[in-house]
Amino acid sequence: MTTNTATSGPVWDWAAGHGPVTGALSATTGAFALAATGAATGMPPAWALAAGTAGAIGHTVTGLRARLAARTIALRSASWLVGAGWTTWATASGPLSWTALGSLAVIGVGIATTARSTGLHEEARELEALEAAGRQVAAELSAERRTIAAEWVDRIQRVCGITLRVLAVEMWPGGMGFTIDAELPPGGTTYHRIAQEQAKLSADARLPHGCTAAAGPGIDQGRVLIDVTTKNVLEQEVFYPSDYSRLSIHTGIPWGLRTNADEIKAYLREQCALVVGPTGSGKTNMVHTILAGLARAEDVLTFVIDLNAGSAGLPWVRPAFTATGAPVDGVRPGIDWLAASHGEALTMLNALVRIAKHRKIAYQDLMAKANTDLLPISAQIPQIMLVVDEGAEILTSTDPQVKKLAAGILEVIRIARAMGVRTILTALGATSSVLGNLLLRREAKVRVALTGGEKEGMDLGKQFPGSHGLRPEQAPYKGAGFMGTPESSPALFKSWRILPNQISDIVTATTPIHPTLDAQSARAAGPAYTDRWNPDRTRWMRDTTTPAPVSPDAPRTAADSGARSGLNLSALRDQAQPAPAADEEAAVAAFMDQIDRQFGTTADPAEDTPDRPAAPGLNLSALRPENSDARHAALQLLIAAGAEGTGASAIARALADRFGTTRQTIVGWLKEWAESGEAVRVGEGTKTRYVHRTHT
Fold first, then answer.
1. Pairwise CA distance, residues 492 & 412, whole Å
2. CA quadruple 429, 432, 437, 439: dihedral positive or negative?
3. From CA 432, how far away is CA 452, in angstroms rounded?
4. DSSP track, 312-359
5. Which domains are delineated in the chain?
6. Is the pTM of this model over 0.85?
7. Window from 109-118, 429-438, 565-574, 639-648 with minimum mean pLDDT
8. Torsion angles phi and psi, residue 545, rounded to 5
9. Distance between CA 408 and CA 402 in Å, rounded?
10. CA pair distance 72, 58, nearest whole angstrom
11. Of 207, 277, 598, 609, which residue is the least packed, with the fewest Cβ within 10 Å?
């Protein structure tokens, strides 16, 4: 049933208060009605006077409690008394005479006029009270700011030898700190003089750990902005915001919080990014934070390469698929492609190169129409962000297979900027090997160093050239570190904490936001892209009975060979394996015999005879000055590991039962072999492994 509601005519708001005119009308009509009723019914006139007197007293008390102006209280009391007096007279003599009506009209006009004047006076009085309170607060704040300015002028003079003229002090919301805007002295002094002494300034100010006094450029080169943090937000665990609203690559992707609790954004339309963090610093969590921001962008598709079993991307894919690999209705993966093996990673990189080259041809008319040499990125033509976990280590690897991946990554970085394909790489440390690539240093202008207080391998001066006073111990907390972009100088920041259940929520909430790859790019990528979620290609995500694809950079352990413990003969798997030995000694003998046949190694010197010629091939006896069986077995394990190499821990585990050799002993042998050229060291930190020279 439909009801038509009339919309014509005035609409009365019966809940609204009275103004000067309506108040006067209400008072006079009420008095007339009461007088007419009283005269007709013979009501005693004194009743009206008593009621008016009570009303005057009540309004006087109410006005005093509300602290109204005396003029307002007098008007309201007088209105009640005058109205009551007229009603009393009119009730006795009759309200319908011209005298009664005329006097009532005069009373109404007088009430309206006086009420208007009193109302203006009351408003002016309230405004004056507010202004007085504001002046008092400003005076108190100004006094505080003057105290801060004088204190820091004296401190900077004492520590840096510079006399500043403070122009303003801005207090941060939440009491996190303040910013000093000051004018540098004449003579060519720059803000760098203050920036390089920020550690001394922080100590002189007795700031809490994690708080700094960071100097940066002001509005011009003769000004300086000094951000002083007084409350440490780095030690707090700040969870990723529950607001999953739409973002854009053009407006920036938030990556965390500055020390003043402001969001810091990464602008990645033309920039690549490098995120460095040692084990335990919160780097993996930072990667998930980055992926969360990219998932919220309406004009970004994210490709992920993680050779460590795809662990960085799996939480963003699994909510969109069932246990059999079928897609879940209404849910799309939070990332658009995941590669966890060399083969899949090469396929992805080759597809990205084809996409970038094809876009340069296919969108010439669009770029000409927009009068730009950058591809206009939008939800219809999305940007592709390639995220490579521990990708910086891939660029420095000497492994032939990994070198192919490195070449593909560098090719994408080199040719794809204008066509909307950018890269985010992570690394375990800010070392010369990681930052030695000129292309990476030039393109990765968005840089993050999650220190967690770790000093080894954290050369902040190389990661943030030109910065001063950045020390890892300033951010000793997990998820804390330094972040610098072309728009903001390197400074302390805190990465958000994101939990697995929140990742699942983000995948579901951002499904309507995800764009689809434009037709031209999809055509260039071909079946490699369109079949990326094929159940056969993603079976490794669901198969828990066999190991997931891993990087050859990862150190080999005994567990890598399945349920068996002991030696991993991956380099010899193309040959027929000997029958299982009855016991451990028979197995070792069979293994040594196979090594001798494969590499032509010689027998022990004690077993050599003068009549027996030396066997051709590799002679290992010269490398055993201690004639140690354990050392000999360790070298054989190194050779058997092939081009993938192995590490000290894996060798120590394999030899522990037979020889009781410690890891420290194995490390010493490996270093000796690396120095003599017998082996080659590859990787850094937990990725360190050694490859025998016959496989390099």
1. 30
2. positive
3. 20
4. TTHHHHGGGB-TTSPBPTT---SSSEEE-SHHHHHHHHHHHHHHHHHH
5. 20-132 (no CATH), 162-229 (no CATH), 253-542 (3.40.50.300), 558-695 (1.10.10.10)
6. no
7. 565-574
8. -95, -20
9. 10
10. 14
11. 609
How many CB atoms are located within 10 Å of the residue 492 CB?
25
Angle at 16 between CA 73 and CA 110, to 5 degrees: 40
Give Cα separations from 360 to 354, 368, 424, 580, 615 (angstroms). 10, 12, 22, 59, 60
**How far is it, in rounded angstroms, from Cα 303 to Cα 291?**
10
The number of angstroms, rounded, from the C-alpha of 158 to the middle of its chain's C-alpha atoms is 38
| Tokens describing residue 103 | 């006097």
What pLDDT is stored for residue 113 in this prediction?
Answer: 74
Asked whether the beta carbons of 638 and 646 are under 8 A apart, the reply is yes
User: Look-up: residue for tokens 């028979």?
Assistant: 586
Beta bridge partners of 168: 181
| 49-53, 208-212, 245-249, 294-298, range with the lowest pLDDT | 49-53
Closest CA to 177 of 497, 495, 491, 496: 491
Residue type, 84: A
Q: What is the mean pLDDT of residues 176-188?
A: 89
d(CA 460, CA 463): 5
Which residue, among 182, 176, 171, has the nearest Cα to 229 in the 3D structure?
176
Mean pLDDT of the region 441-447: 91
Reported residue count of the chain is: 696
**Following CA atoms 412, 413, 414, 420 in sequence, which dihedral angle do they give, to the nearest 10 degrees?**
80
Contacts of 538 (CB under 8 A, 6+ apart): 317, 321, 325
| Whole-number Å distance between alpha carbons of 627 and 636 | 14
Q: How far, in Å, CA of 481 to CA of 459, rounded? A: 13
**Could you say which DSSP state residue 611 is in?**
T
Q: How many Cβ atoms sit within 10 Å of the Cβ of residue 385?
A: 27
